[in-house]
Design a protein that fits this description.
By secondary structure, this protein is mainly alpha-helical. 41% of the residues lie in helices and 8% in strands. It has helices spanning 4-9, 84-90, 109-128, 135-148, 157-170, 175-190, 197-202, and strands at residues 15-17, 22-24, 36-41, 44-46, 67-68. The strands form 2 sheets. A 3-stranded antiparallel beta sheet has the order 2-1-5, with no helix packed on it. A two-stranded antiparallel sheet has the order 3-4. Helix 3 packs antiparallel against helix 4 (135-148), helix 4 runs antiparallel to helix 5 (157-170) and helix 4 packs parallel to helix 6. The longest helix has 20 residues, at 109-128. The protein is globular.
Length: 203
Amino acid sequence: TSPSVASKNGSKTVRAKTSNGEHIYFSSPEGRVPNSASRVAPGLDVRGDRGYVVLPGSVHPNGSIYKYKPGHELGKCPIAPAPEWLLALVGPTERASRAQVQPIPDELRGRAAAYFKRAEVLEHERLRNAPNHQRNNTLNHSAFKLGQLLHLSAHSDEQVLLRLTVIGQEIGLTAAESAATSQSGMKAGCALPRPFPAVASAA
């Protein structure tokens, strides 16, 4: 993150030093705040709902220790509300409620399963091509997208999740990271399902 994020907000908030930058913490508004990588600015990532960061006290693989910045420690410093300008750049928030989708007629089940399979192939390809610094974020994004379409799949939730987890490990994430991110992303996607186009167009 960039120090300018905090200074433009005008409020003191919790901040932590990382191995190659800073984490700046804000409280979120009502609704789902999306995660992003370098969307707001190059090298500036946002972690909202279903996202996570490494907390101070943790040790980076290169040996550096995550630490709170003096005067900005959690418990000694308030967490300021997220500034409106930052939320506008992050993107629209989404209500975390389950969307309603129409049931798929039996005669369209085969087409729905093929639609999901194509989406799965595309997300797996996206994941395998993810830059090193965006691997975890890309896995979360792909898991979310597939979670939205999971009701179309002919396979079990566990099979879809396992394939994502395996690819996550193939691109360099640890088994624990890959499993946690895949599960979190899919769960969030399942809460906001997308309708099968053939059914939606006929409604």
